[in-house]
Amino acid sequence: MTTIAQDRELHPPAITPETQPFFDATARGALMLKFCDACQRFHHYPRALCPHCFSERTRWVETKGTGSIYTFSVLRAGTPTPFALAYVQLDEGPRMMTNLVDCDLDALDIGQPVRVVFKPATNGAMIPMFTPTQGKAP
Ligand SMILES: [Zn+2]
Prior knowledge:
The chain is built from 1 helix and 8 strands. The chain is mostly beta strands. The strands form 2 sheets. A 5-stranded antiparallel β-sheet has the order 6-5-4-7-8. A 3-stranded antiparallel β-sheet has the order 2-1-3. The longest helix is centred in the first third of the chain and has 8 residues, at 20-27. It is globular and about 50 Å long. Bound molecules: zinc ion.
């Protein structure tokens, strides 16, 4: 079976002072993560205090925008168009809840490599989502 993912209406994200820089970056096609200089770890979602060590020494770092599918589920019921809800494990470490787009939803696989793409919400904010860069994982 083949189910080609279609673009769907996306609700505007809740943008707070902590997440404003994240969405400023997505508007220019960049995916940013917070990095903690105290414990040398990334985290997501963005927070002023590091969730690993509670340090305030966090800063924004642009990611490569690549990762792999950690887990996913294709939702078909109660939605105008089927879509894939997923956790993507970024190459920098954190997992991000997202959608898998621009692909055959029936050919997705755990471990499959993906890269970020940006889809507009109804208010124009750009939402990071991911698309496979190659076929099913070996
Ligand atoms: Zn830390």
